[in-house]
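Morning, I've got a small favour to ask if you have a moment. The fold is given in discrete form, as structure tokens running alongside the sequence. I'd be grateful if you could look everything over and explain what you see. No rush at all, and the record is pasted right below.
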Amino acid sequence: MVAVVAIVCGCGFGGDECVYIHERCLPPVRRFNGGSQRADSTSRQLLLCCSVQDLRRDGTKELNLEGKIVVPGLIDSHVHLIFGGLQMTQVELRGVNNKDEFVRRVQEAVRTKKQGSWVLGGGWNNDLWGGELPVASWIDDITPYNPVWLSRMDGHMGLANSMALQLAGITEYTEDPNGGAIMKTISGEPNGLLVDAAMKLLLSWIPEVSVDERREALVRASNLALMRGVTTVVDFGRYYSGSSLEQSWEDFSDVYRWADTSGKMMIRVCLFFPMETWSRLLDLISKTGRALSQWIYLGGVKAFADGSLGSNSALFYEPYADEPHNYGIQVTELESIFNMTMASDRSGLQVAVHAIGDKANDLILDMYESVGSTNGMRDRRFRIEHAQHLAPGSAARFGEQGIVASMQWMGGLSSSDSAFLPGWLNAVSPQPDHLLDDADSAIKKLGLDRAQTGSYLFQSLLASNAQLAFGSDWPVVDINPLGSIRTAMKRIPPGWESAWISSECLTLNDALNACPRIRTTHGSCFLAHAEPYSQNVSAEENHREYTISAARASFLEDDLGSLSPGKMADFVVLSNSWDEFAADGSSSVEATYVGGLQVYP
């Protein structure tokens, strides 16, 4: 293997099995993989050195980056990787802003299909064309011989044409399932829209994609992530409300394990599985441990508390402004989710729960508190995924309970983190890119006051000592971590002149730390340290803690999350200097390295 030495303003990395960061001399000690007491000679790791000249030998490559920024490999704390890869070859409706274009794209896809074959796609957002929801009659005339299913961007609603409804046996007499809704016309006929658990009435009729197609989807998705500087993802699988519990497990065995054993993995993944299958995951971990290899980590289990804002199924204390009798949907019965969480946590598994509405978030906060009290204190790192809309006082509870927020902002680099807090450790994951999509619709659906006081409370959560972990929720929004940083700093939706809730804007350092756990320095060398959490640490040390927040949110901090000795040599070269980056949060990915090897471009 060719050694690599990169010189960054006089500092560099390189070696046979290690990548060196110039700071002070340390011996190149190999790190042992897990508890196996076997040196991992297949992945390069970071060590420190005092002189690049001391490392030169035949075959050494030197790379002068001329002052450009080097950051740890970015971690997206919430994606649906294979699902996103599959959607890249289906009908693409993301960004469509009018009915005619929506119909045109479906019609174009039908031309290449045989009669009877399914037309699949998604990514549509009705708020982009004024809010009117699409219905089956929009596309029935152009799809008389093909069943169609088009998921909304958030995955909590989808549109079926009449042929698909007929195939699935969904009629005016079909009752709403628990945790879902079949939307109907004034006359009582299904209009084609299925919400949350109601989607399972149709999804089971769609033929499963082949193993080869799913493997190709992994390759496509991985290449996209690497292009954006993402070297690790937390993958919640093809598990949505109403979907099969088996799909995540099939992808694990048919795709991930195949790619790992055949040497085709390109990015590192931390996998979460449906909470209903917690005992299955426990059995697997007891046999293999959490780290199957340098590429695959077994994360934990996930459940759903509610739906989404865009589908009017997120659960709130007050009704939707545009639907006065609708408070949202509790997708999973509280007793069921409590019992599964209790059992999962008692078995040592990490738990993540999707919660978007203010009532849903409070229900999960209450449940986590009860489970932690019953099962006793330990480093458990509970996660709440999204945490988009919070009731007054709830942001403070995240900090009090040590919860990490896994949130989706714009672009999607996510750092799910949970520091070494006393007691039971939790993680909350907000997604910033949702912020851009939700700004206008939140005001319409919740009213100005509710939308302005409880939405995407990044700064309030940080002030409460909660740990932020940012992610894209791809393919809900695009994987674009650097765009996410700018969004978190500016919070300016398209068409707006000023920030949405300017008091919740993050500084560049906060945005970097909460997202990919980046820490850089401005001088002649760079280094990020991971240090234990203390309740009496300085602001600078707190920033260091945030730099590895994404890794800690998934128990990956020993291997990933900072440029530190002994960690995996995953890093990204950005296109500009720190001063240029700090000016407005803008930068681009120039090169991505995984395990010390350049994988993009």
Notes: The CA atoms of residues 257 and 541 lie 38 Å apart.
